[in-house]
Amino acid sequence: MFGYGNETFQKLITYPIDSTASLYSIALADLNKDDQLDVIATDSANEVVVILYAYTNGSLQPERSYPTGFGSNPYAVTTVQSKNKTEVDIVVTLSGTGYVAVLTEYDAAEFQNETRCLTDESPQSYSVTVGDFNGDRHLDIAVVNSGTDGLIIIFNSGN
């Protein structure tokens, strides 16, 4: 819902997503550098990351889907500013595999590269965040894994 700026909201707007979708997590970021927040969501049923790019009038473009692979079950999503501070990367848990995928942005907000990091031999990673957990100025990834009831931190070596 869009706010009027006086603690009230405009009428609810629903944006259609694939009717077979099973959405679990949402994140916001300006992916295409137009000063508008775009919407990123995970769709476990279709094994994709869904992106709805924002128009300048506050509405959203039709969805674009980025496959995460058979059996991946994308669940949690967050975004992170890349090393060069001009691009945004998407970090998504693939709860069907025990991996986290980092989708790296390239030209025209098209994600061309996916890097996977193993979180655990047990799948079921349901939450993810990014931060510098060891003070080395490199962003690390933290994942909660309900399969092992553990918190897993993937430390970034700076590469």
From TrEMBL:
It holds the Pfam family FG-GAP. It comes from the Eukaryota. The keyword Signal applies. PANTHER family: ALPHA 1,3 GLUCANASE, GH71 FAMILY (EUROFUNG) (PTHR45460:SF2), SIMILAR TO CYSTEINE PROTEINASE (PTHR45460). This is VCBS repeat-containing protein. The keyword DNA repair does not apply. Keywords: Signal.
